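hiii so my PI (J.) wants the whole complex modelled not just the main chain, which honestly fair. so below is everything: two entries, each one labled with what it is. i double checked the lines twice but i was tired so who knows lol
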Amino acid sequence: DAGVIQSPRHEVTEMGQEVTLRCKPISGHNSLFWYRQTMMRGLELLIYFNNNVPIDDSGMPEDRFSAKMPNASFSTLKIQPSEPRDSAVYFCASSLKGLAQSYNEQFFGPGTRLTVL
Amino acid sequence: AQKITQTQPGMFVQEKEAVTLDCTYDTSDPSYGLFWYKQPSSGEMIFLIYQGSYDQQNATEGRYSLNFQKARKSANLVISASQLGDSAMYFCAMREGLHNFNKFYFGSGTKLNVKP
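here's the output for the full assembly
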């Protein structure tokens, strides 16, 4: 089992550039989550998908952020244009959607450390 | 209101002693799941333990146990016999019932330092 795969692991870009982060969830998982983690704000849920459909994007900070999940095995988070305050670690996680009390934990990817200069 | 509250930003514990990390949650849904994750300095998020709202017994996983007090809406993590490798950030999380479509809520975390 390869786990959740994220790429790139590190990204350094200049302000104004477009950034695309990629995620491959665990095969068979039908929920996918994008989080952002910073020292100041902690772990924030940006958006999540069930069965490839965006369910809640209320955490997406601005229109500069967009996320897609064209199929069950791939998702992207895009920032256009990027700004220095977007610098953070971005995590992708996946899980099985089931009963809330069921033992379906989230599996996290290793994260992408984004630095916007 | 915060869904998950972790009131201890940082804690110290002596190696080999037990430590309790606090977590309270807020939900009106009878169906929910509670999770604890560990994030070491290397950055990955590691699942530790789970408790379902209908579980009658407290969850245990090796040195980890979850002190589940449903009436008080608390789900404290107990680490017994602390080890230096337990030094990390610990996050409490909750997944609510069906109407929230599998959304997870995370607390702000507790940074645990284990002293030799």
